[in-house]
Amino acid sequence: MTWTFYNAQGQVKQTVKPPAFVPQYARYQMLHASLPASTYTYITPGSLLDSDMDSGAMSVVATGGGILADAPGIKVRDAGVYNVSLSARAPSGASQFKARLWLFDQVVFETDNSTTTGLQSTEFSMSLKLAAGSILTVQYFCSITGAITMGQLAISRAGAGPQGPVGAQGVKGDPGSNDYVYRANTWGASTALAASVWKALPSAGGGTIQPAGAFTEVGLDAVTVRDAGYYEVSAFAYFTAVVGASCNLSIGGNTATGENFGAEASGVQDKGTQLHASGIIYINAGQTIWVTGISTAVSNVQLRGFSIVRIGAGPAGPTGPQGPTSFPAASNLNFNNFKAIQLGYPTNSQDAASKQYVDDVTLEQIVNFGTPTKIAWGSITQSVVGQTAGTFTINHGMGAAPVWATCIAFDLADPTKMVAVNWRSATSTQLVFSYKRIGAATTTDTHTFYWAAIVQP
User: Fold this and answer.
1) What end-to-end distance do the CA atoms of the chain give, in Å?
2) Which of 192, 236, 255, 272 could share a disulfide with 305, CB 3.0–4.6 Å?
C-alpha cells in the first residue's frame, strides 16, 4: 500500500510508503462462572471478541500478572501509550462490586460501587504508558457468590500519522509525538471535608513525570504544567459513607478552594462512593492544576488516582538537509504544491465530491489521505428499549467496505443505562452495528452513538 500526493494541477507529485506502525486493538471477555463472596479473584481472559492487530501484538498468558506473579493476564508485545477500558456487571442482589486493574504487581486503577438495592455494574477507562512485555490483570470483588455474565476488557494503542513527502530544499523535521505523562503512583492520605466546602485533595507525592521537567508537583495538592497544549486529565476519589449526602469531584486550573470546570463527576453517598472524572482541557504554560472535592455532609475523601497526559506533538526536532515531513497532530498544514482532499459535513442527499449518499449526522466527515486510505467518523441517535438487543445501520459513503470500524455509547450520569456496541458487518455503502444495554435500567432512552471506520485497499 502507498499514499500518493498531487500538485495543484492534479498531477502525481510524490508517492510514499505508509508508516510501518500499525494501531493495535483487542477486546476480551472477562467472565467468571461462580465468583466467591467477599474475595478478590483474578479473572482469566476469555474469548477474543474482536481485534485489529498483527499476530502476537497482544496475547493471553497463564501466569506473570498480579501481586503473586502467578495470575493470568493479557501481555502486550510493544511499548507505547495504551487506552484500557473495562465494563462488568455483578450478580443480581450484590450490595458491593469492585474491579481492580493490575500492571504486574501494582494496582493502577480500582472501582468501588456500593448500593443497598439494585443491580451493580462497574466500568473505567484510562491511558497507560506500557513497557514492552507488560502484563495487565483484572480482579473482581463481590459481596455475594454469583456469576459474572457480562464483562469485557478492551486494550488499544494509538498510532502515528502518515509520513509526508521528502522536501526538495530541506525542511524542518517531524516534531515527533513525545509522551508527556504525569501519574500519581499511590493513593493520597484520607482528607476531612467540612460540609459544603470545596477542598484540594492531596496525592501521595513522588509521582511519575515524563519527560523530566514537563510537570512539577506543588506540595501534595497540585501539579504545574510546563508546556501549553491540550491534555487529558483524569482523577478518581473515594468518599466515605454518609448516606444521602451529595458529593462532587472536579479537575482544572481554576482554584484550590473551589470548583474547577475541566472535568467533573458527582454522586450520592451510600456505602461509600467512588467518583471518576476525566476530560480533555487546554492548559497554558506554567498553569497549576488541582483536584478538588466537596460533600454536603461532614465526611472524608481519599484521592486514589490522578494523571495528566499530553495530546498531540511534542517539541520540534532539528532542521535536516532533506528530512521527511509529516502531518502534525494539531496545526496549520503547508502543502506547498500538494493538494489535500476533505469531504466534510455532507448533506443527506448527495455529496458533491463522492456522488454517494450519506446520512445527515452530527460531526460526520470523510478525510481522504491521497489514494486510497479514507477515515470516516460521526454520531447518530438511537432509541434503546430496556434490555432488548437491536441493530442500526450507518450509510458511511466511502465507496468501499471498511476494514475496521468501532462505535461507543455511554452515559456518565447514569451507569445503569450503559450500552454495549459491536460492529457486525460492512459493505461499500453501509455499516451495521448491534447493541444491548448492559446496565440495569429497563426504561426506553435515546442515546448518542459515536462511530468511526477506515477504508484501505
Assistant:
1) 7
2) 236
C-alpha cell at 446: 435515546
Per residue in 390-429, pLDDT (tens digit) is 999 998 888 888 888 898 887 667 878 888 888 889 998 8
Cis bond upstream, residue 457 (ω within 30): no
Note the pLDDT of residue 440. Answer: 83
Distances in Å between the Cα of 222 and the Cα atoms of 48, 241, 249 are: 40, 26, 15
pTM score: 0.38
User: What cell does 111 get?
Assistant: 472501582
Is residue 134 classed as helix, strand or coil in its secondary structure? coil
CA 292: distance to chain centroid?
A: 22
- Ranges of the chain whose pLDDT falls below 50: 160-162, 170-177, 327, 335, 338-350, 355, 357-358, 360-365
Q: What angle do CA 252, 257, 260 make, to 5 degrees?
A: 25
- Pairing type for strands 12-16 and 24-29 reads unpaired
